[in-house]
Structure formats: C-alpha cells, structure tokens
C-alpha cells in the first residue's frame, strides 16, 4: 500500500532519504510545470525546481503537518521562482522564445493544439500578456490553471486570504482578456 | 446594469466553482437571460482553455532519474559559508518573517547612522541614498540622508509592477512609512 505524504515526511524527518526520494518522484513534474510557467526559460526552471526540493529537504524537520505537504512545497517553489525572476531581470522576450521552443519540442510527439495561424497568434499574444502580469498575478493564474488548486490552497501557498486570491484572479483574467479581446 | 457589473465580477469565481450554491444559482439564472454577460462567460472559458494549452499541454515531461541526481547532489554537497549565509538571509527575509525583519532593518540602519554621528568619521560628508530589496515580493527599503541638515529618511515601499488595480485587492502597493 502506498504511503501518504505525511508518512513519508515523518520517515524523512527520521533520516530516511529514500522517503524523500519518493516525495520528489511524486511532485517533481508538478513543481516543474508551475515554475516553468512563472519563469522565462526551461533551464532556469529546472534549476529552481531542484533547488526547491533541496530547500524542502533542509527544512523538512520544521514541517509539522499544519498544512498539506504539497501546499508547503508549492510555497517554497513559488517564493523561489518569484525571487529568481526578480533577481534575473532578463529580456521580456525570453519567455516567448522559450515557450516557442517548448512547443516545437512537443510538436514532434504530439498534435499542437494551436494548429492554425489564428491560434498560433493567440498563443504568442497570450504568452506575452502573461509575461506582463506581476509575479503575484502570474502565480495565481498558474496555480489555478496548472494545478486546479482551490482558492484556499492558493491562499495558503501565497500567504494571502481567499478573497485576495479571488480578487487577483479576477484582475489577472481581466487583463489577459483585454489584451486578447480580438482573439477570444 | 448594476447587476451585470456584479455578475461579471463574480464570473471568474463562478467558473472556478468557488461560489456558494445560492450565489452560483443567481449567476446561472442571470446568464440565461443576459446575452452580453453570457458572451463574457464564453470569452473567459476560451481564455481558460487557451491558458491550459499554453501552460500545461506544452511543457515537456522531465525524466525523474537525472532530476533526482541533481537534487541529491545538492543535498550531499557541502556548501560554502557564503552560500549558507545567503540561504539564511533569504529564508529570514521571506514574507512571513517580514513582520519582525522590517523593524529590525530600521533599527540596524538607525544604529549605523547613530554610530556614524557619534564618532564623526571623516571630515568631509556626502549626501547618501540607497535602495535595498528586503524580500522576494518586491518590498524595498530606501535610505536617504541629507548631510547638511542631518536629515535621514527611511522609506519602506513595495514595487508597483502592474497597473492600478480596480479590484480592491488586499495587498499594499503604495509607499508606506
């Protein structure tokens, strides 16, 4: 029978690195997808994702189970991604170029959902519009869209109330909608 | 019209299934009889599906083994004392710790300037201005000193990266003392 996250955390707190490896295998892809959404390139996202798990390992003894393990882990990941983004201050075009790279890679193995010109243009505009959002607004959009997390969980991750999450989502979607009005 | 404005403000939460059953029902009934608001709903739904395609479907899967090898290497690698200090500083000055770190930064800065005044280091003084980021959420502390009048201003503020928000968000976006 598969151990719960909390059981693995407790084993990890007792020094079992194998338990931590199991936690990493459960969440590495999810954490990576969230960080790719927040950052501007895949290499940075990979580095920040690995650093996220390293930090989680270092802090795991302080985790008391007051919240779920994944919200705790996402909190570390989002804070690190926002911190990394603020420090790097790279060219805003990086995000679009990187996302284009990801699309091309996917095209080799899967059907591109943006298969016609109109949708391709929508994709480019959408990537640019997301990039123009503040890190906090980008974070709520990504946590909601990628993970489908509840407002309560997003609030726990970002350290704000459910009302603030709702407000940020409304604002962020409104901004995206305005910038993409010709395509929607 | 007022109803339409309120309904549109709640559409996002409605689509996410985060409203109470009674509020959700009010919106559903309104959408059945209001074409403009229903059009708004369709736009939001298309936006949501486009976001999902962009953010989820197009991110490649990463192999676990090399990823774990990278994490394990970080765990086993001995870090330099500089890296340890940087990590301590980042975790200490992260948002939840801000309640006490902001006053601490102010006290330290005041202390430095008090010592500077006490010892009167150097005969020639200059005006001084500096801005330091104190956390990962855009909060900064700015220090301005005008030497002639011995005026020191410490200014805590948060970066305004986006445009004005009309939604009444609870975050602080304007400079505050």
Structure notes:
The complex is a heterodimer of chains A (184) and B (177). Chain A is an all-alpha fold. Chain A contains 9 helices and no strands. Chain A has helices at 5-13, 17-38, 42-59, 69-88, 93-107, 117-132, 135-147, 151-158, 162-179. Chain B is flat, with a radius of gyration of 26 Å.
Concise overview:
Chain A is mainly alpha-helical and 184 residues long. Chain A has helices at residues 5-13, 17-38, 42-59, 69-88, 93-107, 117-132, 135-147, 151-158, 162-179.
What is Rg of chain B? 26 Å
| Multimeric organization | heterodimer
Number of DSSP-assigned strands of chain A: 0
> Quick one: biggest sheet of chain B?
3 strands, antiparallel
Count every beta strand of chain B, where a strand is a DSSP E run of 2 or more residues. Answer: 3
| Helix and strand run of chain A | HHHHHHHHH
Query: Could you tell me how far the N terminus lies from the C terminus of chain B, measured between alpha carbons in angstroms?
Result: 40 Å
Q: Would you tell me the structural class of the helices and strands of chain A?
A: mainly alpha
Strand content of chain A: under 5%
């Amino acid at each position: 029978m598969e151990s719960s996250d909390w059981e693995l955390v407790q084993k990890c707190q007792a020094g079992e690195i194998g338990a931590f490896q199991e936690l990493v295998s459960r969440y590495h892809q999810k954490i990576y997808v969230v960080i790719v959404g927040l950052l501007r390139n895949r290499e940075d996202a990979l580095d920040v994702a690995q650093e996220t798990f390293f930090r989680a390992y270092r802090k795991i003894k302080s985790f008391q189970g007051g919240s779920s393990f994944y919200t705790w882990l996402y909190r570390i990941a989002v804070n690190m991604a926002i911190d990394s983004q603020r420090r790097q201050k790279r060219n805003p075009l990086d995000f679009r170029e990187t996302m284009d790279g990801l699309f091309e890679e996917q095209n080799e193995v899967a059907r591109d959902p943006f298969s016609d010109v109109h949708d391709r243009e929508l994709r480019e505009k959408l990537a640019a519009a997301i990039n123009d959002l503040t890190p906090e607004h980008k974070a709520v959009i990504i946590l909601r869209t990628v993970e489908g997390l509840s407002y309560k969980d997003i609030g726990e991750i970002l350290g704000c109330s459910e009302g603030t999450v709702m407000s940020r989502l409304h604002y962020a979607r409104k901004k995206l909608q305005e910038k993409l009005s010709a395509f929607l | 019209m007022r109803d339409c404005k309120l309904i549109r403000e709640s559409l996002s939460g409605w689509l996410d299934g985060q409203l109470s059953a009674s509020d959700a029902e009010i919106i559903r009934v309104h959408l059945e009889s209001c074409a403009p608001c229903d059009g708004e709903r369709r736009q939001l739904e298309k936006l949501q599906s486009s976001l999902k395609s962009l953010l989820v479907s197009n991110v490649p899967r990463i192999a676990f083994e090399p990823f774990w090898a990278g994490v394990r290497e970080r765990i086993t690698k001995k870090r330099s004392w500089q890296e340890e200090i940087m990590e301590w500083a980042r975790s200490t000055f992260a948002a939840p710790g801000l309640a006490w770190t902001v006053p601490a930064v102010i006290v330290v800065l005041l202390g430095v300037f008090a010592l500077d005044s006490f010892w009167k280091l150097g005969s020639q003084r200059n005006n001084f201005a500096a801005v330091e980021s104190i956390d990962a959420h855009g909060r900064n502390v700015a220090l301005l000193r005008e030497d002639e009048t011995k005026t020191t201003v410490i200014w805590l503020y948060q970066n305004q990266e986006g445009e004005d928000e009309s939604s009444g968000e609870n975050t602080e976006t304007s400079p505050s003392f």
